[in-house]
């Protein structure tokens, strides 16, 4: 079994710091996308939970598609919200992305190391 790393050069975090992990790793038909926050070029994109959730999920989708996976390949999503009151609004955004192919999911409330409202990661499977 081979392992392929996508974005292994690392991205840019807050304050321009280098992020020392791959954006996704593929092994044996599985694709694990690292947690995505609503950041562009190392800066948090301010906005509501709707706007931040849309960007975080879209970043996951873009990484998946670059790796050759699509929405029907998503089997599990992990979500971290910084406030339980965001749950219903997040679900509305989630449904716009995954309504036709609902994956398994966990959603938790916790502090994030980045000053934003949400972080999302996805796990995909496609038979090799």
UniProtKB/TrEMBL annotation:
<dbReference type="Pfam" id="PF01042">
    <property type="entry name" value="Ribonuc_L-PSP"/>
</dbReference>
<dbReference type="InterPro" id="IPR006175">
    <property type="entry name" value="YjgF/YER057c/UK114"/>
</dbReference>
<comment type="similarity">
    <text>Belongs to the RutC family.</text>
</comment>
<dbReference type="GO" id="GO:0019239">
    <property type="term" value="F:deaminase activity"/>
</dbReference>
<dbReference type="InterPro" id="IPR035959">
    <property type="entry name" value="RutC-like_sf"/>
</dbReference>
<protein>
    <submittedName>
        <fullName>RidA family protein</fullName>
    </submittedName>
</protein>
<dbReference type="GO" id="GO:0005829">
    <property type="term" value="C:cytosol"/>
</dbReference>
């Amino acid at each position: 079994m081979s392992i392929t790393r996508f974005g292994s050069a690392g991205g840019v975090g807050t304050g321009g710091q280098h992020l020392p992990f791959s954006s996704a790793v593929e092994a044996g038909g599985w694709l694990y996308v690292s947690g995505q926050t609503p950041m562009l070029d190392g800066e948090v994109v301010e906005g509501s939970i709707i706007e931040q959730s849309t960007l975080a999920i879209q970043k996951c989708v873009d990484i998946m598609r670059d790796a050759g996976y699509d929405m029907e390949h998503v089997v599990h999503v992990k979500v971290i919200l910084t406030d339980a009151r965001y749950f219903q609004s997040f679900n509305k955004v989630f449904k716009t992305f995954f309504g036709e192919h609902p994956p398994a999911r966990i959603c938790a409330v916790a502090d994030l190391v980045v000053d934003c409202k949400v972080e999302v990661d996805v796990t995909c499977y496609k038979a090799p």
